[in-house]
Automatic annotation (TrEMBL):
Belongs to the shaker potassium channel beta subunit family. SUPFAM superfamilies: NAD(P)-linked oxidoreductase. Residues 15-311 form the NADP-dependent oxidoreductase domain. It comes from the Bacteria. It comes from Paenibacillus foliorum. GO terms for cellular component: cytosol. PANTHER family: HYPERKINETIC, ISOFORM M. It holds the Pfam family Aldo_ket_red. This is Aldo/keto reductase. GO terms for molecular function: oxidoreductase activity. Keywords: NADP, Oxidoreductase.
Length: 313
């Protein structure tokens, strides 16, 4: 496993990190979740991601229980705040009240004294940015949070946050968590350039486009009965003829390189120096093993050009 610095900090995280969205505490059985976490740790993954809203705290409980088997200083733990955790008017957003209360609730569920990274899960237009940043800075001062990040913020929102933090000497955000994969590249235009210039890394989620870039779904073939697409309607607009045709071409490249197409997709993401880590999900340990093998794969310029031709086609 290779490691990269997280933003303009001294913290190093594994190029492949393990998340718990749509899995732990939900449709994946707890024992499989724990085994996936154990496998990741054994393969050198030191970066684990969850959020309070994932199954309303259940994912944090599973993650905390599994990681309790390891020395706390041996891994980097991230969770998030923003989405509703109740029906009350203050049970959501980035107000000082919600940020502080949810941090305490997450720490309790995770059974830890601190989280290494605390994300603002989305931007909150209803709360003054200074209020949110001061609340986060207080949590850092108290030692309950070590680093601060955001998720799916625009370049302009991150720049504004840095400006306020610098003006009032508050803790600066060092990471953004956006969606990024071969089929969704919106961050290349503004977010990555801003991150490069301002010391904000990207920790990207959905790097395999929710399974589309694993080769699980093939052109002309039926959707696997044990896949997410078989039980949910999300695949109706994603598994298009054009997309599946691109995947077939990508599979040819991966076969020539003697790697999995999922590993090709992850290595392609990690070509970006501003990406600190690709956040993967796993419903079984074998998926973790396959994904972790992508760390350290360097794609040649010719391969990258071939991939670009496919994606632009």
């Amino acid at each position: 496993m290779k490691y990269r610095k997280l933003g303009n900090s001294g913290l190093k995280v594994s190029e492949i990190s393990l998340g718990s969205w749509m899995t732990y505490g939900g449709y994946v059985e707890d024992d499989k979740s724990v085994k996936s976490i154990e496998q990741a740790y054994d393969l050198g993954v030191n970066f684990f991601d969850t959020a309070n809203v994932y199954e309303r705290g259940e994912a944090e409980l599973v993650m905390g229980k599994a990681l309790s088997a390891y020395s706390r200083d041996s891994y980097v733990l991230a969770t998030k705040v923003f989405w509703p955790m109740g029906d009350g008017p203050n049970d959501r957003g980035l107000s000082r009240k919600h940020v502080i209360e949810q941090c305490h609730a997450s720490l309790k569920r995770l059974n830890t004294d601190y989280v290494d990274l605390y994300y603002c899960h989305r931007f909150d237009p209803e709360t003054p940015l200074e209020e949110t940043l001061r609340a986060l800075d207080d949590l850092v001062t108290q030692g309950k949070v070590l680093y601060v990040g955001v998720s799916e913020w625009t370049a302009a929102q991150m720049v504004e946050a840095l400006s306020i933090a610098d003006k009032y000497l508050l803790d600066r955000i060092i990471v953004n968590q956006p969606v990024y994969n071969m089929l969704n590249r919106y961050i290349e235009k503004e977010v990555i350039p801003t991150g490069m210039s301002k010391g904000i890394s990207q920790v990207v989620f959905s790097p395999l486009a929710q399974g589309i870039l694993t080769g699980k779904y093939r052109a002309g073939a039926s959707v696997p009965t044990d896949s997410r697409a078989a039980s949910k309607s999300w695949g109706d607009d994603k598994l298009t003829e054009s997309t599946l045709a691109k995947v077939e071409q990508l599979i040819k490249i991966s076969d020539e390189l003697d790697i999995k197409v999922s590993q090709l997709a992850l290595a392609w993401i990690l070509r970006q120096p501003n990406v600190a880590s690709a956040l993967v999900g796993a419903s079984r340990p074998e998926q973790v093993t396959e994904n972790c093998a992508a760390s350290g794969i360097v794609l040649s310029e010719d391969v990258l050009n071939s991939i670009e031709s496919i994606l632009q086609g």
